[in-house]
Design a protein that fits this description.
By secondary structure, the protein is an alpha/beta fold. The chain is about 30% helix and about 25% strand. It has 6 helices and 13 strands. The protein has a 7-stranded mixed sheet, with helices on both faces.
Length: about 240
């Protein structure tokens, strides 16, 4: 399976009212950081090479990873980190990491604050320059996708998306060559720069999944995920 880059460098300001000390991906969930659930889930889907892209409170992430690795549960998985000295945006973080590691022809990307129950295997099989789309009952928080013949044709605005449909799950399979046009160590957005350019080139495939999906970026959904874990994941999110 392709290497997995996990975007974990954001400030998480929307969740700071209830999680004050830890970065969002390290928010406690039933005695463990949210990131632990993400890592275990990715490993169960076949991922063996993980790179954390860090900036804000990077030392807390590295300490958490050391603790997880010492438990023995992650001994068969390679986990590395790349720290950016300034905020580079979601696209800039990926560009910085790919250039720094200089070893990836293709790779997958996910967000560290989003639970996506499944779909990585299908994304990995899809080939390069693909986006994982998840079906939700209300697209208005995320914006929806206009899809035609297996390609993303448009990212619809949130205010135009108050209905069930397919949204960007924040998981991608990309080739390093699509990043060469962007400046290294410059702020670049995956959502506003990289992906729209791939759409304009008719070069962004869609992989659909009906997986459980939740972004813990707001307190309501953070507590919803905590409750889901506490109850043994016995219902859909």
């Amino acid at each position: 399976m392709r290497p997995l880059l996990i975007l974990a460098g954001g400030f998480g300001t929307r969740l700071s009212s209830v999680v004050k000390e830890a970065p969002k991906p390290l928010a406690p969930v039933c005695g463990a950081p949210f990131l632990k659930y993400i890592l275990i889930n990715c490993i169960e889907q076949g991922v063996t090479d993980i790179v954390l892209l860090l900036h804000y409170k990077a030392e807390q992430f590295e300490e958490a990873i050391r603790e997880l690795q010492s438990s023995g549960n992650f001994s068969h998985v390679r986990i590395r980190s790349v720290i950016e000295s300034k905020p580079l945006g979601t696209g800039g973080s990926v560009i910085h990491a790919v250039n720094k590691l200089d070893s990836f022809d293709s790779f997958m990307v996910i967000n560290a604050d989003t639970w996506l129950g499944e779909g990585l295997r299908d994304l990995n099989k899809s080939g390069s320059n693909s986006l994982l789309a998840v079906s939700v009952r209300d697209c208005s928080r995320y914006g929806s996708l206009r899809i035609n013949n297996g390609l993303v044709k448009e990212f619809m605005e949130k205010k135009l998306s108050k209905y069930p449909g397919w949204i960007n799950a924040g998981a991608y399979c990309l080739t390093s060559d699509v990043l060469t046009k962007y400046q290294t160590d410059e702020y670049t957005s995956m959502e506003l720069d990289v992906l729209p350019e791939l759409v304009r080139e008719n070069n962004l495939k869609v992989v659909k999944t009906k997986s459980n999906f939740i972004d813990i970026g707001i307190p309501e959904d953070y507590f919803k995920f905590c409750n889901w874990i506490e109850l043994g994941r016995n219902h859909d999110l």
